[in-house]
Amino acid sequence: MTKVITTGIIGLGRIGKLHAANIQNSIEGMQVKTAVDVVITEEAAMLMKKLGIENVGTDADRIFNDPEIDAVIICSSTDTHTDFIVRAAKAGKHIFCEKPIGSDVASIEAALREVRKAGVALQLGFVRRFDHNHKAVREAVHAGKIGKPEIVKITSRDPAAPPEAYVRTSGGLFFDMMIHDFDMACYLAGSQVTEVFTYGKVLVDDMFGKLGDVDTAIVSLVFENGAIGVIDNSRRAPYGYDQRVEVHGALGCVQDTNDVGSTCLLSTADGVAAEKPLWFFLERYNAAFIAELQAFTQAVSDGKDVAVSGEDGLAAIKIAMAAKKSLDEKRPVSISEIK
Amino acid sequence: MTKVITTGIIGLGRIGKLHAANIQNSIEGMQVKTAVDVVITEEAAMLMKKLGIENVGTDADRIFNDPEIDAVIICSSTDTHTDFIVRAAKAGKHIFCEKPIGSDVASIEAALREVRKAGVALQLGFVRRFDHNHKAVREAVHAGKIGKPEIVKITSRDPAAPPEAYVRTSGGLFFDMMIHDFDMACYLAGSQVTEVFTYGKVLVDDMFGKLGDVDTAIVSLVFENGAIGVIDNSRRAPYGYDQRVEVHGALGCVQDTNDVGSTCLLSTADGVAAEKPLWFFLERYNAAFIAELQAFTQAVSDGKDVAVSGEDGLAAIKIAMAAKKSLDEKRPVSISEIK
Amino acid sequence: MTKVITTGIIGLGRIGKLHAANIQNSIEGMQVKTAVDVVITEEAAMLMKKLGIENVGTDADRIFNDPEIDAVIICSSTDTHTDFIVRAAKAGKHIFCEKPIGSDVASIEAALREVRKAGVALQLGFVRRFDHNHKAVREAVHAGKIGKPEIVKITSRDPAAPPEAYVRTSGGLFFDMMIHDFDMACYLAGSQVTEVFTYGKVLVDDMFGKLGDVDTAIVSLVFENGAIGVIDNSRRAPYGYDQRVEVHGALGCVQDTNDVGSTCLLSTADGVAAEKPLWFFLERYNAAFIAELQAFTQAVSDGKDVAVSGEDGLAAIKIAMAAKKSLDEKRPVSISEIK
Amino acid sequence: MTKVITTGIIGLGRIGKLHAANIQNSIEGMQVKTAVDVVITEEAAMLMKKLGIENVGTDADRIFNDPEIDAVIICSSTDTHTDFIVRAAKAGKHIFCEKPIGSDVASIEAALREVRKAGVALQLGFVRRFDHNHKAVREAVHAGKIGKPEIVKITSRDPAAPPEAYVRTSGGLFFDMMIHDFDMACYLAGSQVTEVFTYGKVLVDDMFGKLGDVDTAIVSLVFENGAIGVIDNSRRAPYGYDQRVEVHGALGCVQDTNDVGSTCLLSTADGVAAEKPLWFFLERYNAAFIAELQAFTQAVSDGKDVAVSGEDGLAAIKIAMAAKKSLDEKRPVSISEIK
Predict the structure, then answer these.
(1) What is the rounded CA–CA span in Å between residue A195 and residue A197?
(2) Contact of C63 with C75, CB cutoff 8 Å
(3) Dihedral angle sign, alpha carbons of residues C276, C282, C287, C289
(4) CA-to-CA distance for B149 and B142, rounded, in angstroms?
(5) HEC-encoded secondary structure of chain D
(6) CB contact, 8 Å: A137 with chain B?
(7) Arithmetic mean of pLDDT over chain A
(8) Does the pLDDT value for residue B293 go beyond 60?
(9) Which chain A residue is nearest to residue C261, measuring alpha carbons?
(10) Rounded Cα–Cα distance for residues A303 and A305 (Å)
(11) pTM (predicted TM-score)
């Protein structure tokens, strides 16, 4: 009989609450014992109670010092990630950390050294790798069905722009949004990105411009294996979350399309009407959020490699930094320039 | 705060186990206290234990005599349905009963009288009404988007034939398989069926013929509201569960297609390859099985009408009987002939 | 170098004009020398002139007595078909005849005897056999890709009802519209129909009822090879010409969908909008009308069997008669009853 | 009655022969009187004869000096285009010229000055603007259905690489292939391109590298109206000609997909198989080749503006030059740098 993995969650924002609920309701072999945040809102307290999580507080040491806790789920703000990773590693706890892994290369590398030293598992929260559609595309590429990959294309558009408060601390489009696509690009190509070039614009809301960010961007990519690629992002897609990937290779092309609420098709004199894509990530990646924690549970239980490593997290951050630098300096930027 | 509805399950076959797991894992506001079957297999016992259902036995009176139990989930063999409905009604318990509701009109009508007398809720397990696709089609029709319905078409094919033992007691294709489609036809048309004509064949497996059944059938339908319709069934679809509906009306046509495992599309010199439909009802109607119990929970909690009534169950049985009679007598059969 | 086949056209209604234009503009190896009709409208005269057809008149003998004319294209009203077939055969001319081949079995059989005696080619105008989509379905069935056919389904709906004048002489839905589907059913199944059962209704326009016709019908079919099938027809589909076929067999299912004006897809907050099916047969079967005459040209040039024989025309008429009889007598009707 | 426009064709390669056949067979109101090329192959001579074009020779003055000829169709090699445009303009003939319009900016601008001076019509052969799918996308954008355009994406991949001889004189990928996409990008965005950045690779065939060309490229674009865009090209798509466009805007997204040979769908245990895209431009843009000449005929007859101007041709050439310069110099290149 498999031992149930006991976890503590750090950070009870939108994603922390989601993981808490998924672990308690849907992940066999894992449970949440403790949840902490800098402030515990009444709403968070009620949810934790409903989920049967009794230890709730503001001190993360309740997790790090608890010998019953096997793993930490880090869902706090990005600037705290590497610190918590280091503390968790030193406490000998396995780690699931939300993306992005951190905000500067040096501290990320230091944290990864601690992880390696402690010999604990560290899985990054690149949830899209666990989406049924993207996964099927990756598997087709991996199985050689399209031959050597040559062109990778990713369309990724949010239904609506986030609030200003979020953008102020998120690091901006390349760090809070396209970071997923950078990881997806590497995942699909089966290769690392070596250089990028960015065009970015403020077309959706001037707020982004005032904060030094863009809301619409096209980033071209060069991969180590010779392939090239492109990602486009927009902060606004009134028809819903637009998440499509495509890989073209020597033998063919594999792609996916959006999931929809139903396959219902209405034909009238006005035309043929189909349903819109699912509205946003909670709907589209609902099953993937569960699957990534199942994979983490499995990896910890079996002592096997995690599906998304800390190094993957670092790679994505470096690409994001290069993309931002390319935008700022109006020139292609090599990943090797990022220190 | 809403009271949690306490249930007892009768019958721990495939569908009973499915409902037990769904109630325990996914239905807020409902729990299973007791589960009974004529024989409790070791596998069923282990599953119940894992689901936290402690009272497991062979005597249904453990359910009917338990004042803590609010509702009964009937998943036993068809021939026992009406008897359990009557006992549940007399015990003042609400009832969720798997399809078909029974095997002869008189006993069904008697059972429905008891249900009405007791004033308990009775919901039939026509799970497909809760499927996201079929529901969207129904809602488009109901909203008047295609005008007055004129033609109803249902394609319904199982991936593979059931074992002989199942067919021996199921009542055959019209009672164990097309019964769903008869209900769906009425649900989509928003009208009752008044007459049917059947062509049926043994094309999949001679076993069906030996048992006096067919494995492939086309049943034409006439509805009270003037529409006509057709259902085709096959016991074998090597590409997976084929479940499509379509309604054509004065202003247009609304239809759905199958759900698939992923939207992944592979284009090579060999052609363009897409994924097959989901394999069978557990995959396709997974969410619908949860939704029907949520609806039952809601109906019991709110004291409102159930989504699928005992009368709907009786109507479907009568159509099935007429369809079988049409096959046997090679002529159109009116539902009014069925007593 | 291949000899150009010289033809005469009888009947300059909509379809006669279409064939004339196609032969003159698009059929290499065939030309129209003469065109006749009971009355030559000014519009028909101008079109013939524009097409370079100089001999235009009201006397069909101008065609039958002209030794330069190799083949006759019969596009006159149905009641004249068999007479013109007989005259053409006796004159030793090859024959392309629009559907239906005639209106009573005896005269059709007599005409076919004359054709056989004369040794001329006779091709029926079942144009849908030459449609790229239906043809691909047929070829997949024929190549054994779905194994033995078990269920044949045909959806066939006109965008709008024809004028009363047309219905008065067309023979009604089974003879002017579903006749195509009866032929398509045999073509797809690779087998003859042996029995039918019909449900028909007047739902679109009371005019049809006054003329003793129906405007909405579902006809179930039994095939000689054991398969069963169903055709549904409606005289009104506000979204355009709805022409879909499907064959289910032991190894799988093959189907087609409608052709559309463009693949353009518009996604907005209101939903996802696609184009409607092509409006009617002139748009949908445009290329097929050319292909059927190319096939006829080829058959005549090479002395090979035609793609659609007079016997196919007779078979379709018999099914139509049986379908009408089934509607009238409210019972399944065997094709063998039709004399 | 409209006067028939008499034309002379210069250049009887693949595209010249195609236009000759289309004019003779499908373009009402236009005819070919004379066809010239530097060498007349026997095959070209036979085709001209079959098409009823009697004047065939090697001296272009047979066209320019013929007062009966109203318009010239220039299909010769790119390096001769501007010279022929100038000669045609001076002779007062209207001009249809294949893309690209020329190979250096100065001579193109000089030629356009002559055209303006002569007051003749000049239409460029950007045939894809006349494709039913791309046109529907453009019309949706133009009608404001997606609001202000923000992202333009074009996928354009040839089924197989051209022969080395072709590449030696074509100017390479940006001039013989992506030139279409540059024009399409402006057409869809309703705006001019102001800057580009190119990643290009030799992945398909080393031959391209040896000739100083690439065979796979991603070019990012900035438009005058603030939108950004991206084009990807590959010289090899084993599944057929891949031609898809997409425009994302403030209110939604509009896109198209490839045309296919048939809508036939085969579902078996192996999966669901659909048809591949049409093989290459002759199949996919067949109707568009006719439509562009109909539009030219119309423009000349009515004295209205042509659908694709010489300025459009010049704009596309400048973008191609900038894209090549970007590849060579590994930096974004402004169109204003191209003289």
Answers:
(1) 7
(2) no
(3) positive
(4) 10
(5) CCCCEEEEEECCCHHHHHHHHHHHHHCCCEEEEEEECCCCCHHHHHHHHHCCCCEEECCCHHHHCCCCCCEEEECCCHHHHHHHHHHHHHCCCEEEECCCCCCCHHHHHHHHHHHHHHCCCEEECCHHHHCHHHHHHHHHHHCCCCCCEEEEEEEEECCCCCCHHHHHHHCCHHHHCHHHHHHHHHHHHCCCEEEEEEEEECCCCHHHHHCCCCCEEEEEEEECCCCEEEEEEECCCCCCCEEEEEEEECCEEEECCCCECCCCEEEECCEEEECCECCCHHHHCHHHHHHHHHHHHHHHHHCCCCCCCHHHHHHHHHHHHHHHHHHHHCCCEEHHHCC
(6) yes
(7) 97
(8) yes
(9) A271
(10) 7
(11) 0.96
CA atoms within 13 A on the CB side of D38: 5
- Tell me B273's DSSP state: E
Q: Does A222 touch chain D (CB under 8 A)?
A: yes
Separation of alpha carbons B23 and D209, rounded Å: 64
Q: Do A271 and C276 lie within an 8 Å CB cutoff? A: yes
Report the residue from C237, C269, C272 with minimal CB separation from A273. C272
Among the partner-chain residues C199, C234, C331, the one whose CB lies closest to the CB of B331 is: C331
Give the span between the Cα atoms of D229 and D183, in whole angstroms: 13
Q: Do the chains contact at B203 and C331, CB–CB below 8 Å? A: no
Decide if C285 contacts C127 (C-beta within 8 A). Answer: yes
Contact C25, D25 (CB under 8 A): yes
Tokens of D232: 């990807």
Rounded CA-CA distance C149/C223 in Å is 10
- The verdict on a CB contact (< 8 Å) between D274 and B271 is yes
Q: Is the dihedral of CA D39, D43, D49, D53 positive or negative?
A: negative
Give the tens place of pLDDT for each residue, B36-89: 999 999 999 999 999 999 999 999 999 999 999 999 999 999 999 999 999 999
Reading the block at residue D92, the tokens are 């007062």
Largest separation between any pair of C-alpha atoms in chain C? 67
pLDDT 10s digits, D62-75: 999 999 999 999 99
Which of D150, D200, D230 is closest, CB to CB, to A234? D150
Is pLDDT at D3 greater than 90 in this prediction?
Answer: no
Mutate to test the interface with C, among A155, A272, A275 (most CBs of C within 10 A): A272
Chain B, 307-336: which have a CB under 8 Å from a chain C CB?
A: 330-332
Chain A, nearest residue to C278 by Cα = A271
Give residue-wise pLDDT tens across range C13-29.
999 999 999 999 899 89
The amino acid that residue B263 corresponds to is T
d(CA B171, CA B149): 31
Q: Residue D58: what residue type?
A: T
Closest chain A CA to residue B139: A264
Tokens of C178: 């579903």
CB-CB under 8 Å, B267 with D272: no
CA distances from A251 to A150, C236, D275 (A): 10, 45, 16
Cβ-based burial of B52 (10 A; exposed 0-12, middle 13-18, buried ≥19): exposed
Q: How far is A187 from chain D (nearest CA, A)?
A: 20
Q: Is the peptide bond before B100 cis (omega within 30 degrees of 0)?
A: yes
**pLDDT tens, position by position, D91-149:** 999 999 999 999 999 999 999 999 999 999 999 999 999 999 999 999 999 999 999 99
| CB atoms A232 and D230 under 8 Å | yes
**Which pLDDT belongs to residue C2?**
61
Is pLDDT of A1 > 80? Answer: no
Number of A–D residue contacts, CB under 8 Å: 105
In this prediction, residue A3 has a pLDDT band, given cuts at 50, 70 and 90, of confident
* Residue B274 CB-half CA count within 13 A: 18
Q: For residue A62, count CB atoms less than 10 angstroms from its CB and return exposed for 0-12, middle for 13-18, buried for 19 or more.
A: middle
What tokens appear for B114 in the block?
A: 């008891």
